[in-house]
Every structure is written in structure tokens, then in C-alpha cells.
Specification:
heterodimer; A: about 280 residues; Rossmann fold; 8-stranded mixed beta sheet; two-stranded antiparallel sheet; 11 helices; 10 strands; globular; B: about 375 residues; 2 domains; 5-stranded mixed beta sheet; about 20% strand
């Protein structure tokens, strides 16, 4: 008997672009599955979903999914997304980016997208490395972690992505992991539903490069690390501070309301046309 | 405030005329970043675009502006950015993306002195070659060179038309003087104008290929949200828009980018010539310099020198065919440019040593005067 196709299979370009580029055991496919299930659950028409990405392993995702897909330049998917969304606000724009893409080359676009508050759902897959180019250090690994361009250990400080986004003005900031996949799916859903700029950081792993260089094991060991170090924000108050020190929080970290740019611009149009 | 719908004489600067041209051509999206001497285009459109239901956004830099312009065009809205020297350098990567992804859009480069920050408030034509070769990789470019305030309007309209027709970015090469100079203009109303919109697909979504290979080298273009659900990438791709590493498909794609221009040069290239019927001497100049040249040629004709003007209105592709022909009748051609000699390379390339080619270059921030050109004609004749 043929196995029942999963929900995700209905949304994949199975005849066009498979097999995918990701290593066996990579976390990016887990994120893709969570996004698809969230979209399916929300009953969004695939014609209205636009998936935009930059450059890197995670940014290959749009090629595989049956939406309107735009694979752009390194670091700039949020700027492309700004144009798409403002030109046609009826579209649901989901931006897929990585830690190097969004925070290094795209850092300027990232903070301004947070500040400007256009309704873009940004899913930032943080694997602490440049995977596609072979394991160079990103703006995200902890101090003294190894990368192919940090052979003596990385001497830079890492960005705290969520704090950066909150400080830059993002109204919705959440964090999940590829281990906590049920939670991840819900976070994607909330991020899509949020009116305004939403950032979902997903802690993932690159066992092929980062894991090997830093002797952190394979995908199983690295996902176990996620399991052991993630604290749901709802439980954070019950954990003694010394036990929080090397942990990270997951869940919705920040959720405020602020006027969304496209809606504000409609008011600009009304005012310019003397209808306000 | 006057808009393009009023038809009457008025005094306008080049930047404003360019902005009016964009609106008249159907542009409803502008993304930009403040930079002298192009800023008035952004200011004008920030005020005027919402009046016609269009959108203006000031981005965090020029790179983001060009990205937003491409995004808006992919969503189906005619879009434009305007910038100058350093900003034109910054957007080169995304102009390349627009070539590769075949996204119609218009880039106005109000040229100022360079390199680097250079001379923000001074005139120049030193981005002429950058408009052709600015981004990496192989591609063919379209660039237009207006020489009056009225032409800033007309050429911006034409830039949109060519861009939509051939699914390619088009550059309008203005300059600081043209941008800030005020002239009396009468703008046409919409009934007098030809506006071209991108060809839309007529096939059902399952047959649609966003980068279809066809004999015209231009594929019909669906927009996001219209049910076609295609992929766009800056990676070299197959007709469906998916990355490819197959040599045959790669070559076919790059040939398409080239051929859509080279097979249509007769439609794209425009040259204005004056007093060329009996001329054995010509001045070759574009943009603001062509106006000094026109005056110099009148001075020459008064002295019974058989001199004429060749003014390329399309800078890229270069008017090879016209030049090939006209160089036969000339003993001397003077190429006048506000740079250290950029288009003269093209003239020399087509000339292949047949006719004497002399350059008159000025890059000290001032315009080339009619008198300078006239003296050069007399010296070299």
C-alpha cells in the first residue's frame, strides 16, 4: 500500500526541484515543514503566499515550495519583501533568512525592517555559521567557537537576535528550535497572524560544519543540546537565575501593537487625495 | 500643484520633469535614498505619487531601494529609483539581479563628478560606461540620454516603455545641470502619449514558464498573486525559473539576455543628427553637452565649415550601425564628453581607424562651452 502523503507533500514542488541541497540531518527542512503546516492550518491560499529569501542554505527553501517564490541577493530579502508587500499588501509575505544573511550583510535592512513595521513574517534560521560557503563564523556563535575563518577561535561577540530586533522596534519577536517542532509550528502561525513586522528566530544546527569544527557531535547530539538548553518563557520565572545562565528562552518574547506601515500609507494616499 | 493631467506651459526643472514622466508612464512605486543631485525626484514623487494612488518609500540605503523597486515590479507595479554617483555604484548588484531575473524597472542616474563622493553638486558624464558595464557578468544594457527638461519627461516615459517591452532594467543618464536647470515645457496629456505595459501570459498556470524561451527573446510576465506561482532567482536558471547547471540551458539564458537587446537595436537606438547631410566634420555629444555642440555647429556653419551634430539619444546600445555608415562621409569627428573619454572608445571601436577621431574632454566640474567646441573644430579641421 502507498503511504499516505503528508500535508507538506501537497505544497512541495516535488517534480521540479528535488532532491534538495540540504545535508541529511539538517534542521532547515524541519522549519520548512513547520511553515507549510502552519500555512495549511491557517488555510492561506498558496496564490497569496509569497516566500522570499536571501542567500545561504536556509535561503534555498523557496525553490522547493509551491508558492510565489523569490530567491534574491545576499542579505537583502527584507528589502525585496518591502517592495513586494507595499506594492501589493494583499499578499502574505514570508521572508526566510539565515543568521549571516540577516545580521551580517543584511544587518542594516534587518533593523530598518524591524523599525518600519511592514507586515512581513521573518523566519531567521540561526545555525551559527555560513553553511553554504563552508563553515565560516557568523555574527552569532559564542565567543571562542571555531569556524574555518576563525581557526584560532572567534574573538567577536555574538548578536542576541531577539534583543536586537526588540531594540530596533519589531513589534513581535519569538524564538523556537528545530527540536521543539510542535511549538515551532505554533510560533510560525502566530508570526504569520501578527499584523506588522514579526521575527521568529529558529535555533537550528549545522553538524556538517559548525558541529564538526566545534566537536559538538552529529544532528542528534546537537538537537539534544537544543532540548537541554531551551527554557520556555512561561517557565522562566520558576527557574533559579543561576540555571538560566547558559540557557535561552523560547516562545513569544515580545508582542506589542504598533501601526503597520502599509495601512499607514493608505492613510497617506487618502490624505494626498483629499479624502482624509 | 500641477500634475501631468494639466496641459499648459510651465517652468520646470529636469528632476521634476523626470518625476512627471514616471507618473505619466504609469509608475506607481518609487523607492529611493536621498542623494544630491537627484533628491528632488524623490521629493517630488513623495508628494505626487500618493495623489495617483502610488507608493513612495524612502529606504535605508540605495541597495535596499533597488531591491524594493524589483520587489514592487515583481508584484506587478511599474517602479523606479533615482540616484547619483555613489548610489549608482551601490545599486549595481541589484541592477544585475534585474537583468538576470528580467524584471522591468527604471533607474535614473543624475550624474555628478566622481570617483567616490567626488563632486556632489557638479556636472559630469563619468557614469557613461558604468551604465553599460556596472554590474558583474554578461548582459546588454539600455541607457537613454536626455538633453533638455522636456526630454527628461519624454525619455523617462520611453525608459518605462522599453523596460516593459523588453523586461529589462533601463537607465536614464541625466546630469546635475539638466536636473536643476529650469526650462519652459509643455507636457503632453495622456491621449498624446504611448504607454507600453508588459506582456501578460495567455496560457494556463500549468503551462506557464516565467522565463520562456521564444523567438522574441521576451517572455510574458505574470505577477505575484495572479495564480501562476513561479520561482524567481538571481542564480542562472531554466525557463521555469529554477537554478540550473546545465551548460545548454545556461547558454540559452545568457543568449536570451543578449539577443533581446541586439535583435531589437532598430527599435531601441535613436540618434539625432543636425546639419549632417553635407557634413565632413561632426561633433559627437550626448546630454547637456549636445546643447553646447549645437551652438558650436551654428558658429561653424557661419564660418562655412561643413560641420554637423551627432547626438545619440540612446547611449546603450551604442548606435553602431548609424556610426558605421556616417563615419564613411566624415574626415573628422570630435567626441565631446564631461569625462576623461568614455564614449570615444566606442566611436574608435566602430571607426577602426578610418576617420580622424579627436576628443574634447572636460572633467573640472564645468560644462563644455560652445566656444570650446568651436575652437576645437577650427583647430582640428
Amino acid at each position: 500500500m502507498e503511504p499516505m502523503p503528508k500535508v507538506t507533500h501537497h505544497y512541495l514542488r516535488t517534480k521540479k526541484k528535488f532532491p534538495n541541497v540540504w545535508c541529511a540531518g539538517c534542521g532547515i527542512g524541519i522549519v520548512m515543514g513547520a511553515i507549510i503546516r502552519a500555512i495549511d492550518k491557517l488555510k492561506l491560499s498558496r496564490d497569496e503566499v509569497v516566500m522570499i529569501s536571501g542567500i545561504g542554505c536556509s535561503s534555498r527553501m523557496p525553490v522547493y515550495v509551491d508558492f510565489n517564490t523569490l530567491h534574491t541577493t545576499h542579505g537583502r530579502p527584507l528589502a525585496f519583501g518591502t517592495g513586494v508587500k507595499l506594492a501589493k499588501p494583499s499578499l502574505k509575505v514570508i521572508v526566510i533568512t539565515g543568521d549571516g544573511d540577516a545580521l551580517a550583510i543584511g544587518g542594516n535592512h534587518f533593523i530598518h525592517a524591524c523599525r518600519r513595521n511592514i507586515d512581513l513574517t521573518t523566519i531567521l534560521i540561526n545555525n551559527q555559521t555560513y553553511g553554504m560557503t563552508g563553515g565560516q563564523f557568523a555574527p552569532t556563535p559564542p565567543f571562542m567557537k571555531m569556524g574555518t575563518t576563525a581557526p584560532y577561535g572567534n574573538r567577536e561577540r555574538a548578536f542576541d537576535i531577539a534583543k536586537l530586533a526588540i531594540a530596533a522596534g519589531a513589534p513581535f519577536v519569538a524564538r523556537g528550535t528545530v527540536y521543539h517542532v510542535v511549538q515551532l509550528e505554533k510560533l510560525v502561525e502566530q508570526a504569520i497572524l501578527k499584523k506588522g513586522f514579526s521575527l521568529l528566530e529558529v535555533i537550528s544546527h549545522c553538524h556538517t560544519l559548525y558541529g564538526r569544527l566545534n566537536k559538538e557531535g552529529g544532528p542528534i547530539e546537537m538537537m539534544r543540546w537544543q532540548k537541554d538548553h531551551a527554557i520556555p518563557i512561561s517557565a522562566a520565572g520558576k527557574v533559579p537565575p543561576e540555571k538560566l545562565r547558559d540557557k535561552f528562552l523560547t516562545g513569544v518574547l515580545w508582542d506589542i501593537d504598533f501601526p503597520e506601515y502599509c495601512e499607514e500609507y493608505d492613510k497617506v494616499i487618502a490624505e494626498a487625495q483629499g479624502k482624509a | 500643484m500641477n500634475t501631468a493631467t494639466d496641459k499648459k506651459e510651465r517652468l520646470m526643472q529636469g528632476n521634476a520633469a523626470c518625476a512627471e514622466g514616471a507618473i505619466a508612464a504609469g509608475a506607481r512605486f518609487f523607492a529611493g535614498y536621498p542623494i544630491t543631485p537627484s533628491t528632488e525626484i524623490a521629493e517630488y514623487l513623495a508628494r505626487e505619487l500618493p495623489k495617483v494612488g502610488g507608493k513612495f518609500i524612502q529606504m535605508e540605503d540605495e541597495i535596499a531601494s533597488m531591491a524594493a523597486v524589483i520587489g514592487a515590479s515583481v508584484a506587478g507595479v511599474k517602479s523606479m529609483t533615482a540616484t547619483s554617483g555613489p548610489g549608482f555604484s551601490l545599486i549595481q548588484e541589484h541592477i544585475g539581479y534585474a537583468y538576470m531575473a528580467e524584471v522591468p524597472c527604471v533607474i535614473v542616474d543624475v550624474q555628478r563628478g566622481g570617483p567616490s563622493t567626488g563632486l556632489p553638486t557638479k556636472v559630469s558624464q563619468s557614469d557613461t560606461m558604468q551604465a553599460r558595464w556596472g554590474t558583474h557578468g554578461d548582459y546588454n544594457a539600455i541607457a537613454l540620454g536626455p538633453s533638455s527638461v522636456k526630454e527628461c519627461f519624454d525619455f523617462t516615459v520611453r525608459a518605462f516603455n522599453l523596460s516593459e517591452k523588453y523586461r529589462t532594467p533601463v537607465v536614464v543618464l541625466m546630469d546635475e545641470v539638466l536636473a536643476h536647470m529650469r526650462e519652459k515645457v509643455t507636457l503632453p496629456d495622456s491621449s498624446e502619449m504611448r504607454v507600453i505595459n508588459r506582456m501578460k501570459p495567455t496560457v494556463p498556470p500549468e503551462w506557464y514558464e516565467h522565463f520562456e524561451i521564444n523567438p522574441h527573446f521576451v517572455s510574458p510576465m505574470a505577477s505575484f498573486g495572479e495564480g501562476y506561482r513561479f520561482n524567481i532567482t538571481g542564480l542562472t536558471h531554466n525557463p521555469e525559473g529554477f537554478p540550473t547547471s546545465r551548460p545548454v540551458v545556461i547558454k540559452e539564458k545568457l543568449d536570451k539576455l543578449k539577443n533581446k537587446i541586439t535583435h531589437n537595436v532598430n527599435d531601441i537606438v535613436e540618434v539625432r543628427q543636425e546639419f549632417m547631410e553635407d557634413a565632413n566634420v561632426a561633433v559627437f555629444a550626448y546630454g547637456i553637452v549636445a546643447r553646447s555642440a549645437r551652438q558650436a555647429i551654428r558658429m561653424g556653419r557661419d564660418k562655412r565649415i561643413r560641420v554637423g551634430l551627432i547626438q545619440p539619444l540612446t547611449i546603450w546600445p551604442f548606435p553602431d550601425e548609424y556610426m558605421e555608415h556616417i563615419l564613411e562621409q566624415l574626415d573628422l569627428i570630435i567626441v565631446a564628453e564631461l569625462n576623461q573619454g568614455q564614449l570615444i572608445r566606442e566611436v574608435n571601436r566602430v571607426n577602426r581607424g578610418r576617420t580622424r577621431v579627436r576628443g574634447l574632454f572636460r572633467y573640472d566640474s564645468e560644462l563644455i562651452t560652445p566656444d570650446q567646441i568651436f575652437r576645437k573644430i577650427r583647430e582640428e579641421k
